[in-house]
Structures are given as structure tokens and as C-alpha cells.
Amino acid sequence: MSEKRTGGRILVDNLVAQGCDRIFHVPGESFLAVLDALHDVPAIDVVTCRQEGGVSFMACADGTMTNKPGVAFVTRGPGATNASIGVHVAMQDSIPMILFIGDVDRGMRDREGFQEVDFPAFFGPISKWATRIEDAARIPEYVARAWNVAQSGRPGPVVIALPEDMLCDVVESLDRPAVARVPQAADAEAMTRLAELVAGAKNPIAIVGGAGWNAETGADFAAWAERIQLPVATAFRRQDSLPAGSPVFAGNLGYGPNPKLVQRIKDADLILAVGARLGEATTDGYTLVTLDHPGQTLIHVHPDPNELDRVYRTDLAICAGMASFAQQLATLDTAGPFAATQAHAEWIEWNTPKPRDVIFDLGQCVAAMRERLPADTIYCNGAGNFSSWWHRYWPYAAYPSQLAPTAGAMGYGVPAAVAAALRAPERMVVALAGDGDFMMNGQEMATAVQHGANLLVLVIDNAAYGTIRMHQEREYPARLSGTTLHNPDFAALARAYGGWAETVERTADFAPALDRAMAETGLRLLHLKTDVEIITAATTITAIRNR
């Protein structure tokens, strides 16, 4: 339409035009004109959150679920700086997201006015594009461009500042049609060369998952890998990129991987990296796959040309979208079979929880969840050692089903689970959070209750910032400083928010409590009180000290 409208109305109309059906926000006076326009637009579900970090994490998770930009609104200054954590995660995780920030009036700029920040300068280093809209008539142009930038090439976050007075301007403006993601096919000659290199390899392996991945990509890649029996590992916190039941799945990389998988990658003569940036966590500080990888051929497939040859010496660089590349593999004539059967058997052995002689065995808790929860359950977690039990023992059987920041941000699990539960109400959603992790955004349980989200929260409470305690014990054994926590009654807290909750302190009590939780609906929480001595799925504090 082109009749005169406020900037706020033009913005909302163009969000609808681009297919936006949900926004996450904490309200601010700087974008009241947008909230007023949303009052008359039932096509957009407005999710009101409790802290801007939760807002941006929810938008980031929504982008993961849909492969379309998750949309967030916050106010200037403190609101925007709180939200920056989700922008950083979206950037490092290659997730499409758009953050709109209500800004100071145009006439007030550069006076260090109330809550003023130079947002393009502030967000520029951690986003794909950070800008400000000065003219309400150009809102459709900016929104369409933001949609394209956020989801094209390597997906990522866009940040747009909205001067408060600009949103109140009444102007004529022509809306833009929906922007479709442009497919990126791989070069035919490069695909031929890929086939030649794979055919000449004796011990190849693939590392997959990352920018622009989707369920179809995983299925297509698995079909090709199964045809030639190519072992496939997933990058850090990308375990849902390939169905865990695939006979070529060799396990996941990151923190605490299967030593046999680590050795398999070291012994490989060819590494096919598809979608993964091969970042620090996936490569154990760039040591598992070294920058020059002598004796190994590296084929790197990524949708962003700037990523190729940026860190690693690449023998064959292929710039392509994940979906197009995986589809092209179907017609590729490649050699085989390779060693996938043995690699998958090693994963099954590593992935099977074995009882430990401890009061609370989280491995057996995961085993109980494997028996009771649907295979396509969505797990959402932030940072912390607590997640290692699920990374190791839960078979991520569907995409998306692992919402976990590769950036290692704490406080992600609960807000991500709220977003996932609202986006996929037909699926089981579990938030995993350590006690320190939970306290950073646990208040979003209020958002879950207010908006009718159906999710289960597991708080794994060892009364410590466990990951830092682990590092502390390694570097300064038995010299505790600043890592111990005194926690509230998390079950009582969940009940105060309007949820159902129980506390569990022994392995044997977990499965019955889980059954009772599964019989409930809405917000449910299990407070799992564990011993910090059992610091990971593979070691203890005592063992670390004794090293």
C-alpha cells in the first residue's frame, strides 16, 4: 500500500509482508508507535518477555527453528546492551535474526541524551549489518534488505535502530514483497574435483553442520554418505545435523568427544567440512584439524566466500548453500565403501550410558529420558558442564532438536525452550540448565506461563559454576575462589511462577519424578541436586586434582 501511514505502521505492515508471524520484546517508550500498530495486527504474535537477554535468545532460537529471521524489539541503551548477548550468539552460530532498537529522536542525537548509544558502531562488529533508519518512507527498503542479509550466504543477525520520532512520522511509502532466500549451487567443476579427491582417499571423514543447514540437507547428505559408507561427525553442538540413527554417524566434536573419534579424525587423509566453520570448540583449539593440516586434504564447503581460506589452508574450497550442495551430491559418482560401520559402532559404544557408583548419576537420567521422551524432543541448553551428559548420551534424532549456542553463552536454555515450545507446540521441549546458567534467565519462566508454553525444565544444581570450577581445579588444585554458589529452592521458585515442580536427589528417584512431570502440562521443573565431585560425564574433581 502507498497511502500515508505512521512509520510504526509501515514497519509492522512490512514485517507481515516478509512473513513475520511472531516477535519477542520488552516494551519501551522508544517504540510505542510500533506497539500501537501491532494492536491491530493479529497476524503477529507478540511475546512479552522479562529481560532483553531473554528477548534476543528467544529470537535467536526462533531463527534456528524456522531458518527465517527471528525478530526482536528492545528499547535503547540498557535494553539494547542487554540484548547484545543474543546478537553475538546469532553471529557466531550463523542464525538469521533481526533486532530492532527504539532509538533517541533524530534531533537529540550526539548529545549523549537519555540512554543514547551509537548502535551501528556498537553492534557493527558482532552483526552482519547494523544500521539506522532516518526516513520513514524508506522502511520497506530497509526491512526487505534486512531480511535478505539475515538469511543469505552465511546467515546472521541484523540490527536496526529506529529513532522514536521517525516512527511517528506520517508518510507515503510503497511496501516491498517478501524476500526469498537465493539458492547457491556449487560449481560443477568443483563437484567433479570433490568426487576425484574422495575417490583417491583411503580414510576420509566428513564434519558437518552449521550455516544454513536444515532437515532436508541432513537427509540428503546422509543418503550420499550412506551410499559410500563415509563416516560423518558433527561439529560442536550441531548433533542434530545428521540423524543419530544413520549408520554413518560417527559422533560429535566439541568438548569431551569420543577419543576414538578424535583419533579417527587425526588419522584421516581427507576431511570434508560442510557448513562448519571448524571453529575453536570443534577443533579443540585448532589442534584436531590444524591450520595447514599436513598429510590431510581439506575440502571446505561453506555459503560465505569470506569464510573459505580465511583460517585454514583449503585444498578445495566450494562456495555453496547447504541445501543445493547436498542435493548435488545425490548425482555425484563417488568411490567407496569406507569405514562408516566401525565408526558408527564406536559411537554407539560411547553413546550408551553405563552406571556409575554415585548417588546421582546423570547418565542414567539420560537413559531414563531415552526410554520415555519422544525421539524428536527438542533440547535447549546454555553453557556448562551439565550439558555434556546430554551431548554424549542423547541421540538427537530430528532437525532441529539441539538448540545450544556454539558461542558458549550462559542463560540460553530457558528462553530458547520458550521460543521452541511456542514454535512447535506438538513437540516435547526440554530446557537444560545448570544452577548458575539457570539464574541468568530463569525469570523467563514467567513468559512461558503467560504465553502458555508447554516445556520441561531440568535444573542441574551442583552449587557451583561447574565449568569454571573444573578449570580452576586443573590450574590451581584445591584452591577454591569465586566458584561456589548458594542457591534458592528452584522447585519452590518454579511453583511461585505457576509451574509444577519437584526436587530429586537420587538416581532412583529421577524416573518416577520424570513420569509425574510428563503427566503434567505447561511449565514443569525438576530440580536435580547433584554432587560437584562428579564434574563431567567422564571425570571427577578428585581425578582432576590428582593429575
The largest pleated sheet is described as: 6 strands, parallel
User: What's the architecture of the largest domain in CATH terms?
Assistant: 3-Layer(aba) Sandwich
Instruction: Quote the average pLDDT.
Output: 96
Helix proportion range: 25-40%
What's the tally of helices?
A: 21
What overall form do the CA principal axes indicate?
globular
Rg from Cα = 24 Å
> What are the low-pLDDT stretches, counting only 5+ consecutive residues below 50?
none
What would you note in describing this structure?
The chain is an alpha/beta fold. The protein has 3 domains: 5-171, Thiamin diphosphate (ThDP)-binding fold, Pyr/PP domains (Rossmann fold), CATH 3.40.50.970; 188-347, Rossmann fold (3-Layer(aba) Sandwich), CATH 3.40.50; 352-546, Thiamin diphosphate (ThDP)-binding fold, Pyr/PP domains (Rossmann fold), CATH 3.40.50.970. 37% of the residues lie in helices and 17% in strands. It has 21 helices and 20 strands. A 6-stranded parallel beta sheet has the order 3-2-4-5-7-6, with helices on both faces. Strand 9, helix 9 and strand 10 form a beta-alpha-beta unit. Helix 1 (7-17) packs parallel to helix 6, helix 9 packs parallel to helix 11 (322-329) and helix 13 packs parallel to helix 20 (507-518). The chain is globular, with a radius of gyration of 24 Å. The relative contact order is 0.10. The model has no long low-confidence stretch (mean pLDDT 96).
